[in-house]
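User: Please fill in residues for this 260-position structure.
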């Protein structure tokens, strides 16, 4: 028995972290589902905000429904984030809504807009970017945003619209908790595709111990909600808990960040 134990320890040491998945180590697996574009389109809004899955609601600032959706989400126990519109490389200006973060702004102007965006979305505890493939690559712009996040004790989720995003390195430099999106759920608008992407989220979570998916309300909202709800039995079977995204950060890190 002793021999076997030693052998097992040796095996675990040699095999290392790369081959022992989080699932095999018996950790509680946690995944977050951030739903973007609240405040904007209405498709799927009620399904998510009156539903049983603890999604995280990312709300666009400055829209007619920003405050309404943020309050509704909070009232029903959902975590709220600011979904900050940022300039993309391609796309229509109208997709950004009012007062987006564009690369022609000075850092002072960026900071003021981020402050206003936070005021416009009550109960927000974190922020992520809406679009932004151009602006997230701009160090000066990103630094201004991260500085406001730090003052307000908010975490950041990099939506992953550019592989050259400056968010991870600057957040790390300034000590702001940041995580990156792993999977987009509804880049193709069909509930079958959303279910497939939920399967990818489950796999990522089993390997890393945690995973983050982003879906949307609005045009794809209905199929997104259908796909997500249909996947829940499978998540239960695989013992993956859906949690508000803030719960994916190490508790100690968050405590130190929020109450230094
Ligand atoms: Zn968005």
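Assistant: Residues filled in for all 260 positions:
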């Amino acid at each position: 028995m002793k021999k076997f134990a030693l052998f097992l320890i040796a095996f675990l040491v040699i095999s290392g972290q790369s081959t022992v998945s989080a699932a095999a180590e018996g950790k509680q697996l946690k995944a977050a589902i951030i739903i973007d574009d609240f405040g904007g389109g209405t498709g799927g809004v009620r399904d998510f905000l009156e539903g049983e899955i603890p999604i995280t609601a990312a709300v666009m600032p400055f829209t007619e429904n920003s405050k309404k959706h943020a309050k509704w989400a909070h009232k029903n126990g959902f975590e709220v984030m600011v979904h900050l519109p940022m300039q993309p490389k391609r796309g229509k200006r109208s997709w950004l809504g009012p007062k987006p973060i564009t690369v022609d702004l000075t850092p002072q102007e960026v900071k003021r807009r981020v402050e206003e965006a936070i005021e416009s979305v009550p109960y927000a505890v974190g922020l992520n970017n809406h679009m932004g493939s151009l602006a997230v690559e701009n160090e000066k712009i990103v630094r201004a945003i991260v500085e406001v996040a730090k003052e307000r004790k908010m975490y950041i989720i990099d939506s992953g619209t550019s592989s050259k995003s400056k968010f991870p390195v600057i957040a790390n430099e300034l000590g702001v908790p940041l995580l990156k999106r792993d999977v987009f759920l509804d880049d193709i608008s069909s509930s079958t595709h959303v279910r497939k992407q939920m399967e990818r989220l489950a796999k990522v979570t089993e390997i890393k111990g945690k995973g983050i998916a982003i879906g949307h309300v609005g045009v794809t909202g209905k199929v997104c909600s259908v796909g997500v709800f249909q996947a829940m039995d499978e998540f239960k079977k695989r013992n993956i808990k859906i949690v508000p995204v803030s719960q994916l950060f190490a508790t100690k890190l968050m405590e130190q960040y929020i109450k230094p």
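For context: The pocket of zinc ion is lined by residues 36-37, 83, 130 (CB under 6 Å).
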